[in-house]
Amino acid sequence: MLSSIGNYYERLVMECIHETLAQSGDTPDPDYTEDLACVALNNLPPRYIRHSVDLASHLGDDERRAMDQAVADAVNLAIATITRRRQAREV
Asked: Would you kindly state where each structural domain of the chain is located, as residue ranges?
């Protein structure tokens, strides 16, 4: 794939993961963060772009809030999923 094409949600998900983990006081290892990102991104529709400024200039406030909420929900689901899987392995 061309290096100029990316999924807009990737940046939003990583920002949300870092903010969420910082608020909880966690300092997770990179593998955990990447696992969270994969699970969260698999629960979001892809939104491919060439330049993030292009999409940002076309988003309305309501659409941006909806995207932010979808990302937060996906990250919270990812945290719950990975936590549940880890606990199941420990049993």
From this structure: 6-90
